[in-house]
Design a protein that fits this description.
Structural class of chain B: mainly beta
Low-confidence stretches of chain A: none
Oligomer: heterodimer
Low-confidence stretches of chain B: none
Shape of chain B: globular
Largest interface: A-B, 13 and 14 residues
CATH architecture of the largest domain in chain A: Orthogonal Bundle
Number of helices of chain A: 6
Largest sheet of chain A: none
Largest sheet of chain B: 6 strands, mixed
CATH architecture of chain B: Beta Barrel
Keywords (chain A): Membrane, Transducer, Transmembrane, Transmembrane helix
Pfam families (chain A): MCPsignal
Strand content of chain B: over 45%
Number of domains of chain A: 2
Strand content of chain A: under 5%
Radius of gyration of chain A: 81 Å
Strand order of the largest sheet of chain B: 9-1-2-12-11-10
Number of helices of chain B: 3
Radius of gyration of chain B: 14 Å
CATH topology of chain B: OB fold (Dihydrolipoamide Acetyltransferase, E2P)
Domain Methyl-accepting transducer (chain A): 216-452
CATH superfamily of the largest domain in chain A: Methyl-accepting chemotaxis protein
CATH class of the largest domain in chain A: Mainly Alpha
Protein name (chain A): Methyl-accepting transducer domain-containing protein
Helix content of chain B: 10-25%
Transmembrane segments (chain A): 182-203
Distance between the termini of chain B: 33 Å
CATH topology of the largest domain in chain A: Helix Hairpins
CATH superfamily of chain B: CheA-289, Domain 4
Order of helices and strands of chain B: EEEEEEHEEEEHEEH
Distance between the termini of chain A: 30 Å
Shape of chain A: rod-shaped
Mean pLDDT of chain A: 84
Chain lengths: 488, 145
């Protein structure tokens, strides 16, 4: 019935059974004791009321007898009053005694006592009346022969009543003692049952304690050993973790320093980027001026080319004129020579003409020489013009290339300015992020320090756990010894 | 003696004015087959076919660029001499029949005398002897006079 229940449940059940039996025994004992007490009370009551009442009847009657005897002798009113009071008390005591009696025989004896007392009282009253009538007591007249048998009968009835009541008291005492004995026997029986039940419960609990608690303690002992090993591993792990956390803390501190350096560097880079952006903005005006200058140079170069081309054309025209002059000079030279030749055969006039022709030939030679020089000069000028035009065109191309390169450089410069602005923003973001990272790293450092401390505490706790597990293993062995299962 | 002085290549040459008809620019010249190398060909001077002699090749054996044609009188008609630059009309002093080493051989028919102009030698040519007969024959066979 108890299988499958916990040992605590079994223990509670066993103690419950024992407690129930104990309560039953206590209740039974209380009932029995109350029964015995009631019996004894009944005995005591009958003894104190009935027996004492009956004895008191005898004593009251003796005092009344003494009283009326004294009145008969002295005729004192105090004696008469006393004897009447005693008789009233006697009657009262009779009534009270009748209320306490339950035995019919005793009640009959009490009725007899009442009847005998009434008879005796009648005789006594007659004697008392006689004495009141006498001034001097007349003993003979007062000696009534009925009084003594009546008094004896009454006293005998009272004695019989006392004896009957004493017999009843003895019977009640005997019955009460018998009931008390039965009660003791019942209590002893219940006690025996209780002891047997407690022994059974104790045996069952002891068996279960050895069987279940022993197994559990065995498990506890093995678990304690495992816990001790685990605690040792945890302590070792805690030491390693604490060491690792110290290294992490050191690394985080270095990282914190690096982060602060990065933040400072970012701040400087941001400052440089802002200065660069200012310089770039200042450079925009210079770029515009330079572009205007390049455009003016390009225009001037174009004009130079146009002028040079015009100069080349003029030179060609001059060359044409010079060629014409040279042609004319050559023709003149030939004509002058021919004229000289013709004149040589014409006598004196011919010689004069020859002189003129010779002069003309010389002029023609000079003209031809000058024309040749002019031609050379023109060729030089044309060559210079061509060279200048080529150089100017090269220069124009160079200006165009320079302009394109300057446009590229300008766009690059503006892109650089934009990138510098972007870089400045990025640097500010990096600076902000680095500061946030620094704060986070500080928090991580604090957390790492806390973790390192927690690791040390864990190590200490693991050592304590190991000691506790060892102590628990020892206690398990002791407990196994206590429960009688022996050490595992 | 007055002569027309001109250059034939590097040489200074001269012709008596009496032999010179006129000077002119080089004209269109048609080469003639079967003529000596110094005969450039035949050209038409004032409507008359005239043989053209390269004086430089005639004197030196090498061909030069003709700058002028000089028309001279010969026994068989006018002849054009292709010359270099015309220096001009000069009074020339030459010694006829000078050094035989300079005037001998075939050239002796062409060079009448040798003089100097400044530091340069001057060859006085005989135009009537400048054109060999086979040239005239070739010119005649070409169909012109």
């Amino acid at each position: 019935m108890m299988s499958g229940k916990t040992f605590g449940y079994k223990l509670a059940g066993g103690f419950g059974v024992t407690l129930a039996l104990t309560v039953l025994m206590i209740a039974t004992s209380v009932l029995a004791l109350r029964y015995v007490v009631q019996s004894k009370d009944q005995v005591i009551k009958s003894t104190t009321t009935s027996l004492v009442g009956a004895v008191e009847l005898s004593r009251t009657m003796e005092r009344r007898i003494g009283g009326y005897r004294a009145f008969l002798l002295s005729a004192g009113d105090e004696w008469l009053t006393a004897t009447n009071a005693d008789r009233a008390m006697f009657l009262t005591q009779v009534d009270q005694l009748r209320g306490t009696l339950s035995d019919s025989a005793a009640l009959k004896l009490l009725d007899t006592v009442s009847q005998d007392e009434a008879t005796h009282n009648t005789i006594v009253n007659s004697l008392l009346a006689k004495r009141q009538a006498m001034r001097v007591p007349d003993m003979a007249a007062l000696n009534d022969p009925r009084i003594k048998p009546a008094r004896d009968a009454m006293l005998a009835a009272i004695d019989a009543l006392v004896a009957r009541i004493r017999t009843d008291v003895d019977a009640d005492r005997s019955a009460s003692s018998t009931r008390a004995t039965w009660s003791i026997a019942a209590i002893i029986a219940l006690g025996v049952v209780l002891v047997l039940a407690a022994a059974a419960v104790a045996w069952r609990l002891s068996r279960d304690l050895r069987r279940e608690v022993g197994a559990a303690v065995g498990h506890i002992q093995s678990s304690s050993a495992q816990l001790e090993a685990a605690a040792a591993q945890q302590a070792s792990g805690g030491r390693d973790q604490a060491s690792a956390m110290n290294e992490i803390t050191t690394t985080i501190s270095e990282l914190l320093i690096t982060s602060r350096q990065i933040a400072d560097s970012c701040q400087r880079v941001s400052k440089v980027a802002e200065d660069t952006a200012d310089a770039a903005r200042t450079g925009d005006a210079t770029i515009d001026q330079t572009r205007a200058s390049i455009t003016a140079i390009r225009t001037q170069v174009d004009q130079i080319v146009q002028h040079m081309l015009a100069l080349g054309e003029k030179s060609q025209q001059i060359g044409g004129v010079v060629d014409l002059v040279s042609e004319l000079a050559e023709q003149t030279n030939i004509l002058a020579i021919n004229a000289t030749i013709e004149a040589s055969g014409a006598g004196e006039w011919g010689r004069r003409f020859a002189v003129v022709a010779e002069e003309i030939r010389k002029l023609a030679d000079r003209t031809a020489g000058s024309a040749k020089e002019i031609r050379a000069m023109i060729e030089d000028v044309r060559g210079a013009v061509n060279t200048t035009v080529m150089a100017t065109e090269i220069g124009a191309k160079a200006v165009d290339a320079g302009s394109r390169q300057f446009d590229d450089a300008t766009s690059s410069f503006r892109r650089i300015a934009q990138l510098v602005a972007t870089t400045s923003d990025a640097t500010r973001e990096i600076e902000l992020s680095t500061k946030q990272q620094t704060t986070a790293v500080e928090q991580v450092s604090s957390a790492a320090s806390d973790t390192a401390r927690a690791s040390r505490e864990t190590e200490a706790s693991a050592v304590q756990t190991k000691q506790t597990a060892a102590h628990l293993s020892t206690l398990s062995g002791d407990l196994l010894d206590l429960v009688g299962s022996g050490r595992h | 003696m007055t002569a027309l002085v001109f250059r034939a290549g590097p040489l200074l040459c001269a012709l008596r004015l009496e032999e010179v008809i006129e000077t002119m620019r080089p004209l269109e010249t048609q080469p003639l087959a079967g003529t000596p190398p110094f005969v450039l060909g035949i050209s038409v001077l004032r409507g008359v076919p005239t043989p053209v002699i390269d004086v430089g090749r005639l004197l030196r054996g090498d061909q030069g660029e003709a700058e002028r044609y000089v028309a001279v009188r010969t026994e068989r008609g006018a002849v054009a001499l292709a010359t270099g630059e015309i220096i001009g009309i000069r009074s020339v002093d030459t010694t006829t029949g000078a050094h035989p080493a300079l005037l001998g051989g075939r050239s002796s028919r062409l060079v009448a005398g040798v003089g100097t102009v400044g530091a340069e030698p001057l060859l006085l040519l005989q135009s009537m002897r400048a054109v060999p007969d086979d040239v005239w024959e070739a010119a005649a066979s070409a169909g012109v006079p």
